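Slide 14.
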Amino acid sequence: MATSLSAELAAAAARLVVEEGMEYGAAKKRAVRDLGRGRGTELPSNEMVEEQVREYLQVFHADTQPQELAALRRLALRWMRRLAEFRPHLSGAAWRGTATRLSNLHLDLYCDDPKSAEIGMLNQGIDYELAGQQPRGPGQEPYDVLSVASRSEELGEVVTLFLHVRDLDELRGALKPDATGRTWRGDAAALQRLLDAEEGEDRGGGA
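Slide 15: predicted structure.
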């Protein structure tokens, strides 16, 4: 059961995620500082922060967030089709349904050779940067994260795409659901189904 401090930190982090576009990890650490807590403070889980994000969006951004989410998902789908040879899967807030215009996009690329993604983008003339590395499990080498800036005409914003260059064998466990049954990522076909369902709801709501 969550403690009152965990709930307070999760709520503070959620506000930072929505209002400042922060990633969960950074938002949780900032929330600890903002609330005057020390370094050893136990951080709330990402799932706990996500639930607070959903509540915050429902209260403060219910009139704008669905349209912003759909625009980000359409932008992600264009890139997934462009990078189809690398088996892209959308993850993060855009997949989970909590993204706003301030959110970054995260695509997991599953490659036979980690360098093939960079070579493929160079061949397509895509301007990218090495954003850093992310750890895998204990004893495993970290993987590269590339970044691409892409303009969304719908949002009138430049959106940052983070491309997580993973090994192909990691794809086998990538679609396991969380405790609530939601998956952490989905491929282009799954994303298209989400968009089709959202468009159907919009048409139904306007009838």
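Speaker note: Helices lie at 4-20, 24-34, 46-60, 65-82, 92-96, 114-124, 188-206.
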